[in-house]
Amino acid sequence: MLIYEVNLEVDDDINFKMAGWLPDHIQEMLKFKGFQTAHWYFRRPEDEGSKVEGKTLWSIHYLVEDRASLDEYFEKHAERMRAAGKEKFG
Predict the structure, then answer these.
(1) Confidence of residue 68 (pLDDT cuts 50, 70, 90)
(2) Residue 44 to residue 1: CA distance in whole angstroms
(3) 14-50 burial by CB neighbour count: b if 16+ within 10 A, else e?
(4) pLDDT in tens, 42-55
(5) How far apart (Å, rounded) are the C-alpha atoms in residues 34 and 23?
(6) In angstroms, rounded to a whole number, what is the distance separating the alpha carbons of residues 57 and 1?
(7) Which single residue of 17, 46, 66, 70 has CA 20 to 30 Å from 76?
(8) Residue 38 has pLDDT above 80, yes or no
(9) Handedness of CA 72, 42, 12, 26 (dihedral sign)
(10) CB-based contacts of 81: which residues, under 8 Å, 6+ apart?
(11) pLDDT digits (tens, 9 = 90+) for 9-35
(12) What is the predicted pLDDT for the residue at 49?
């Protein structure tokens, strides 16, 4: 098993919109071969020694069956999945 971690730094002025979109995105990710479950974590800048202001920090951990599945995701799907978020939120 592997953990594929995605760290997001979201502007506070769009964090509610993105929070409404993200669960569907996560469910789409879980349809890929080997992706078994996901956990969404909130991070505090002060816990990371950061002075980031005006941002909401999240981490998504995807539990992936094996490296071959993760590599397949990177090769076939990652660009499209990342583009979906960038297109919607910049």
Answers:
(1) very high
(2) 27
(3) ebeebeeebeebbeebeebebbeebeeeebeeeeeee
(4) 998 888 877 778 89
(5) 18
(6) 25
(7) 17
(8) yes
(9) positive
(10) 25, 28, 29
(11) 999 999 999 999 999 999 999 999 999
(12) 79
Residue with tokens 């991070």: 43
Phi-psi region of 34 (alpha: psi -120 to 50; beta: other; left: phi over 0): left
pTM: 0.90
What type of residue sits at position 4?
A: Y
Amino acid found at 51? K
Instruction: Note whether 29 and 62 are within 8 A (CB).
Output: yes
